[in-house]
């Protein structure tokens, strides 16, 4: 393999088709956005440099900048806290996009994931557009307002994250009335993805209506029936392990696939090495599904903090009540179960717990993770190795089959059992 192969050279004789997006020919691999600051400039830039789509996450990027953390770490819950923290994050966002662009050296495509559910959503969209990001990816809510917000940036690709055909129809019809169509759509399967999941409740995660075999053909049929002549690339997210998965999903109508956890455990990922080891060493029985403080189902590694939280969650929900202000003075979410006293939502500070995870704090962190095996088992490998495995099917230095070992450990879905041992740090 050449040291810097072109997309055409890399895909030659693989049976895979390139992703055509924003006027570029790309590898059919998208690195998913992961916060807090897990996918920042290093990961996104290095993925893009190799011809794929690298995605930053906009949430609390100040954590990657010691000077910005020093300016804001002392803030209490006073009224000045949120605007100062928001301002620091805007500076960090601008810096990270610029640094990712330097690393990418014009290769691939740089995107940024901005959650609709965060309070600074509009500000992050405006700054990302002003900073010249190639694509905006929006999930955790329906971005019905994105066409208006990006109307002065027609070359920036707009990519919503959805989970079923009904959501796709809604977005396309609403956007079409505003004179814009999605430049691509991420179809995320909540059964397999990590972090916040596109379902109403935990019980819905395994609903067959989310299966790619149903969703991808249904979406393609809708696009044809809607008279949309130009193709809207579909990006299937969740459960991708190997090249055969990419081939299968392209056969179902996807143009590309998106992975999160597999990129989170690469050497170039922006998180602490301890974070990567927690994700890579987790086994099927270590994963837990729960309702996040954002009110969405989520999936993470059942470490000390998550095990304790799930054990006392009923008590926390029983005494849930609206607070006068955010515990952290940040107000990072538009709707927060802890701050707003919503007993049907999670009762913890998500920014604080994800921040601990970023730093590799095995005891206190919240470690989001997908539900499937990792190609290199518990090894931390370069981005290039992962892309070579997904594109060429070539994997060196791995003994045994991590997927077979993972499947052998799977057990029937069971209610959370607090007596289970906690994943070791």
Offer a concise description of the structure.
The protein is of the alpha/beta class and 425 residues long.
| Rg of Cα set | 20 Å
Count, helices: 16
- How are the strands of the biggest sheet laid out side by side? 3-11-10-8-7-6-5-4
Shape by Cα distribution: globular
How many strands?
13
Q: What does the main sheet amount to?
A: 8 strands, parallel
Give helix and strand order, one letter per element, not per position.
HEEEHEHHEHEHEHEEHEHEHHEEHHHHH
Task: Give the low-confidence spans.
Answer: 413-422
Helicity, in percent? 25-40%
Q: Give the percentage of residues in beta strands.
A: 5-15%
Distance between the termini: 37 Å
- Average pLDDT works out at 89
Computed structural class = alpha/beta
Molecular structure report:
The chain is of the alpha/beta class and 425 residues long. 36% of the residues lie in helices and 13% in strands. The chain has helices at residues 7-11, 41-49, 66-72, 81-104, 121-130, 146-149, 165-177, 212-225, 243-252, 261-264, 273-281, 304-318, 337-340, 350-358, 383-392, 402-409; strands at 19-21, 24-26, 29-31, 53-57, 109-115, 135-139, 157-162, 185-188, 195-196, 234-237, 256-259, 287-291, 297-301. It has an eight-stranded parallel sheet with strand order 3-11-10-8-7-6-5-4. A three-stranded antiparallel sheet has the order 9-13-12, with no helix packed on it. A two-stranded antiparallel sheet has the order 1-2. A hairpin with a 5-residue loop joins strand 12 and strand 13 (297-301). Helix 2 (41-49) packs parallel to helix 4 (81-104) and helix 3 runs antiparallel to helix 4. The longest helix has 24 residues, at 81-104. The protein starts with 6 loop residues before the first helix and ends in a 16-residue tail after the last helix. The relative contact order is 0.13. Mean pLDDT is 89; it is low at 413-422.
């Amino acid at each position: 393999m050449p040291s810097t192969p072109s997309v055409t050279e890399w895909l030659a004789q693989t049976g895979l088709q390139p992703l055509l997006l924003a006027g570029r020919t790309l590898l059919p691999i998208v690195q998913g956005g992961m916060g807090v600051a897990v996918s920042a400039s290093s990961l996104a830039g290095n993925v893009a440099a190799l011809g794929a789509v690298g995605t930053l996450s906009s949430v609390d990027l100040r954590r990657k900048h010691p000077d910005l953390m020093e300016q804001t770490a002392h803030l209490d819950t006073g009224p000045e806290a949120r605007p100062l923290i928001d301002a620091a994050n805007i500076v960090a966002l601008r810096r990270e996009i610029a640094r990712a662009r330097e690393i990418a050296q014009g290769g691939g495509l740089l995107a940024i994931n901005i959650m609709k559910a965060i309070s600074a959503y509009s500000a992050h969209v405006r700054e990302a557009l002003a900073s010249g990001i190639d694509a905006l990816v929006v999930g955790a809510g329906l971005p019905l307002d994105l066409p208006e917000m990006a109307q002065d940036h027609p070359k920036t690709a707009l990519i919503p994250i959805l989970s079923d055909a009904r959501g796709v129809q809604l977005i396309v019809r609403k956007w079409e009335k505003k004179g814009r169509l999605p430049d691509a759509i991420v179809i995320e399967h909540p059964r397999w993805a990590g972090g916040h999941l596109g379902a109403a409740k935990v019980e819905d995660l395994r609903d067959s209506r989310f299966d790619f075999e149903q969703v991808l053909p249904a979406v393609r049929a809708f696009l044809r029936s809607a008279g949309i002549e130009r193709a809207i690339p579909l990006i299937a997210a969740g459960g991708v392990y190997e090249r055969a998965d990419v081939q299968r999903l392209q056969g179902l109508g996807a143009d590309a696939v998106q992975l999160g956890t597999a990129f989170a455990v690469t050497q170039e990922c922006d998180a602490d090495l301890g974070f990567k080891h927690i994700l890579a060493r987790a086994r099927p029985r270590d994963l837990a599904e729960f309702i996040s403080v954002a009110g969405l189902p989520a999936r993470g590694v059942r470490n000390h903090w998550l095990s304790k939280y799930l054990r006392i969650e009923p008590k926390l929900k029983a005494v849930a009540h609206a607070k006068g202000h955010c515990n952290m003075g940040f107000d990072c979410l538009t709707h927060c179960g802890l701050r707003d006293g919503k007993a049907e939502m999670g009762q913890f500070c998500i920014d604080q717990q994800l921040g601990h995870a970023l730093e590799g704090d095995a005891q206190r962190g919240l470690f989001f993770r997908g539900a499937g095996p990792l190609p290199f088992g518990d090894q931390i490998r370069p981005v290039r190795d992962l892309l070579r495995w997904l594109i060429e099917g070539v994997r060196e230095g791995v003994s045994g089959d991590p997927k077979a070992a993972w499947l052998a450990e799977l057990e029937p879905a069971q209610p959370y059992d607090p007596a289970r041992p906690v994943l070791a740090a």
